[in-house]
Amino acid sequence: MSRVPALVVAGPGTNRDADVSLALDLAGADAKIVLARELVDRPRLLENARLLVVAGGFSYADSLGAGRMLALDLTVGLGDRLRGFVDAGRPVIGICNGFQVLTRTRLLPGALGHNAQGAFDCRWVVLERAARSNSVWTKGIDDTIHCPIAHGEGRYVHPDPKSLDAAGQVALRYRSTNPNGSVSDIAGVSDPSGVVLGLMPHPENHVLARQHPHHRRGGGGPMHLGLRLFENGVAHAKQL
Amino acid sequence: MVAPVSERHRLTIRSVDTDPRARQLVAGAEVLGLPEVDRVQVADVVHLDGDLSSDELQLLHRVLVDPLLQTGSWDAPAGRAVEIALLPGVTDPGADAVHHAADQLDLTVDFAATGLRIEFDDAIGDADIDTIVTRLVANPIIERWAHGVIEPQPPGTDAAPTAASTVAIRGLDDDALAAVDAERSLSLDPEELRAVRDHFEASGREPTDAELETLAQTWSEHCAHKTFRAVITADGDDGTMERIPLLTQLRHCTDEIDAPFVRSAFVGNAGVVEFAKGTTIAIKAETHNHPSAVEPFGGANTGVGGVIRDVLGIAHRPIAVTDVLCFGPADLPMTELPEGALHPRRIRDGVVDGVADYGNKIGLPTVAGAILYDRAYTTNPLVFAGCVGTAPSRALHDGPNVGDRVLVLGGATGRDGIRGATFSSATMNATTGEVAGASVQIGDPIVEKLLIDALVGAEDLYSAITDCGAGGLSSAIGEMAEGVGADVDLAAVPRKYPGLEPWEVWLSEAQERMVIAVAPRNVSAIQQRCDRVGVDCADVGVFTGDGRLLVRLGDERIVDLDLEFLHDGRPQRHLPAEMPQPNRSEPIGRTVDDPIATLHALLRHPNIASKAATIHRYDHEIRGTTVVRPLVGAAGDGPADGVVLAEPLDQHGIAIGIGVNPWYGLHDPEAMAFAAVDEAMRNVVAVGGDPDAVALLDNFSWGDPRRPSTLGELVAAVDGCCAAAFTFNAPFVSGKDSLNNEYVGGDGERHAVPPTLVITAVAHVPDIDRCVTPDLVEPGNVLMVVGQTSVEFAGSHLDLVHGAPDDPGVAPAPDPDAAGRYRRLHEAIQAGLIVSCHDVSEGGLAVAIAEMCIAGRLGATIESLPHADQAVALFAESCGRLVVEVEERSVPALQRILSDAATRLGVVNDHGTLELPDLDPVPIGDLADSFDRRDGLGAIGGVA
Lengths: 240, 944
Hints:
The complex is a heterodimer.
Chain A: E1 4-10, H1 17-26, E2 29-35, H2 36-41, H3 43-48, E3 51-54, H4 68-78, H5 80-87, E4 92-95, H6 97-104, E5 111-113, E6 121-129, E7 145-151, E8 155-157, H7 161-166, E9 170-174, E10 186-190, E11 196-199, H8 227-238
Parallel strand pairs in A: 1-2, 1-3, 3-4, 4-11
Antiparallel strand pairs in A: 5-8, 6-7, 6-9, 9-10, 10-11
Helix pairs in contact in A: 4-6
Chain B: E1 7-15, H1 20-31, E2 40-50, H2 54-64, E3 70-73, E4 81-86, H3 93-104, E5 111-120, H4 126-137, E6 143-147, H5 174-183, H6 190-203, H7 209-218, H8 221-224, E7 231-236, E8 239-243, H9 246-257, E9 262-264, E10 271-273, E11 279-287, H10 289-294, H11 296-312, E12 317-327, H12 344-362, E13 366-373, E14 382-392, E15 405-410, H13 420-423, E16 428-429, H14 432-435, H15 445-455, E17 464-467, H16 472-480, E18 486-489, H17 502-507, E19 513-518, H18 523-533, E20 537-543, E21 548-553, E22 556-562, H19 563-568, E23 574-578, H20 595-604, H21 612-615, E24 626-628, E25 631-632, E26 638-639, E27 643-645, E28 653-659, H22 662-665, H23 669-687, E29 694-701, H24 708-728, E30 732-738, E31 742-744, E32 750-752, E33 756-765, E34 782-786, H25 797-802, H26 818-830, E35 836-839, H27 844-856, E36 859-862, H28 870-875, E37 882-886, H29 891-898, E38 902-909, E39 913-915, E40 922-923, H30 924-931
Parallel strand pairs in B: 7-23, 12-13, 16-31, 18-21, 29-30, 36-39
Antiparallel strand pairs in B: 1-2, 1-3, 2-5, 4-5, 4-6, 7-8, 9-10, 10-11, 11-14, 12-14, 15-19, 15-20, 17-19, 18-20, 21-22, 24-27, 25-26, 27-28, 28-33, 29-33, 31-32, 34-37, 34-38, 35-37, 36-38, 39-40
Helix pairs in contact in B: 5-6, 9-24, 11-12, 12-15, 15-18, 20-30, 23-24, 23-26, 27-30
């Protein structure tokens, strides 16, 4: 079967676009990096894509709040077209800055504030799928996912995390260490339909076993790869 | 009738939860002895001018304020507060964001600025508020502040002068020339001033201000490396002798080693090597010391930005950043802080923030580094920033060609960074912070990221490339035009705001700019690439072929200089050096009463203790290429020797190691240099780097070379570098010197840095699946030490902890056998015989073993020590040593490879204690507690 056409959206300051492109390629997609402006100017790009990633980084330097300007570019420029993409069941994932962008476009609930400890933090974390997750991205993942975080504004804020969980929209939680003070240890959330996922950690930086910091000590292993999320997203896009 | 005026609006944005900045301020106030300041509120302020309706303001409000996180108010705030605004012309990314939002929402905003508001309880007095603001928050170099509310100042709109003014120097005597030099901060020598005067007397005219500034910049120590190019008369053991210039000596050394992988050494912006066929690697390290002393965040920030541009400036894609930082003691009492200096803690926090901000935002992993503390760095902090890049192999660019266009890419030019090259070449004093204001800027990593995107892949479209660093366009275009000539029109250079004098445009060190030489047929292709990513590209002139540097503003001549005079007219310096006389013959031992307490004290010493809190501030995971991280082991807190980077799908990679030990240099600068090279070599070999494929960088930060003893130490260090390079067959490919790292205090006394040489080693890693790290892996495995232990304590960390005796004896001596030993160890690593490996450096063998235990959270039982004297065995810092963990069954094979170089120490145990002969067992948890002492930058942890 042919490879799934996927788009990686970048704005000025997006910097993990290449990392996530590699992850998509390894997961069986054909990834193309596009600038938000190109996505706006060339409707064909979105029409032909089956999967969309808003990649991590510091779009517009995160001045006056992470992700806000890129979110504005997407809402003003794409408007209903992005909504339509999601309504058609095509999977969308926003990672780190991309997650911040998607909450600002209101495709995802909640918001991301400054880390509770007050500073940018880069370290590996352990993620587990929330029991009630409705996400197509986390389907069937029973093992923990290991991958790094690298952010200063990753504290997930939501006024009613219980209802969010009841609705299946809590997708991933930090296990054992909550690195940023997120409410209910939430690391990733979905939209009501489960096709849109936003998360702060970087599964795209754990797509090969040897990227794991404990690889030489016998740690990690295929079941803990962040790649599994992308494989799920691609699998879902394939059956559309 | 009155024309409609644009109205000023201000939005005050407050965090719903406690703003982390408020918490930092309260903690900082407590350190300042103001515990009553237990509550502050920090708010962001957005100022904008525009004729906007309330609906339109509401639209902006919705973008700028997230109701789950913030509240926003358009009302003028009241209450006890201080507001801080950026000085006109300082980079304000928040203002750019406001303009962008306005564009998207179709609103007209004429002017925008952002600021900070700090709100205090009424009970706090003005004096305390002033203390907090001046000590912790506002920096007059880039900001102004006031009680109550503050209005931003738009940059001036004065009409710019359209002509250069002339400066009368013909016929002046030395004193009068010195007065011109001082007035314009030229930092030129008397002989150099005379050469300039004579040149213009011969030309029959006075120089313009821009010509004088161009000469001062080109001939500055920073740009011309006058000391490294000087003829030095050295006074030493062998009597007085004249030596070849230091730079020539280093180049000869590289030429003689003639390593097959060197593609370019000591020319252009960075060194270039090719370890694996098809890919070249560019490496460079720079210092940014003076700017970091007066504006730590901006200084470090632009230091990182500058070295990344160096790699981009030799047509390579930057892939990683390194940093070595030297500060005064973080716990220095305020009463001991020299007048006019920032506190070391503020400098450290600002520098770490600056490095993190640039590296994280531009999207490069910040990987290898070191942090050293010494009182001598209090007024002269050192910031060494390095960058590594890669490119598909191709011939080096050999332009510019006659007729090529001069294109300037990147940010617009402002009045920032004027005279940085001359500033960084001068000694600092208590008022430097005030006068140097214009020399320091804040970087914009996003613009530089876009420059990388525009330029990587465009290598066939230009014939020459360089970055705009110190000296701005003057330096970049002046250097590119050497041997060709250029005609530049400053009117075509994009400006941030009007009112700049022509020489300011020419000299401005505004960040994030590159200059490329492009054949006319390729200009539109470059323009398209820039347009796509949103980078300005200005065609400012042409490379002419007439050998002159002509700079115009329209038809007005601003600079008209003979390039040969500009580059070769500087009189060569002649400097006397007094060679150091180190003790190398009388080793002196140490008495250590309580070795376990000493081990804890060493692990707690800020130079040795975990740097995890800082390392976690840097993104070291981006690109997915970091195979061996700076932190390793069971709990993710063990210090790695070197780091290893490999493209995700490659089997080979590179190791980066760093060697630095200024304390040896206080006793024996030549031995120090050898030891620094040895340490950098050990670090790359210890992780799996091939010792026969190593390239080196040298970065010297020294005091004033016009003092013969200081220059003698520099000469000795260069001798040590060359001796080590020959010994290890590892060529230097690039280097940089930062001299005059001195500070004249209010008391008139000079404070110089200790001789600080940072060696960066970059090695080929043939197989990343064979990499090893220092964390112990398996109880029952055998521990062995490789190398010889001798009575070498001068400059040791044992002495830093316990104090040095009057006669410290000898510093760690060069080990000529180390090269062969590393080669054999590499063979053993490649054969899979080594389970873990750690180099022995600061603190000696005891610290090395303790760190391996901490990293692996496993104990060790040491049965025999490598020296009869316990203190020597545990704490001497002899070069050339590593500790390895091997399986019992592999010991004979290892011994066959290493012959007599490896000595058995003991075994890895499973009882969680470090057991040293004749000493009580120490729980590994206690060692980890000493090593992981919090330094206020945050907690640590690993993968659960």
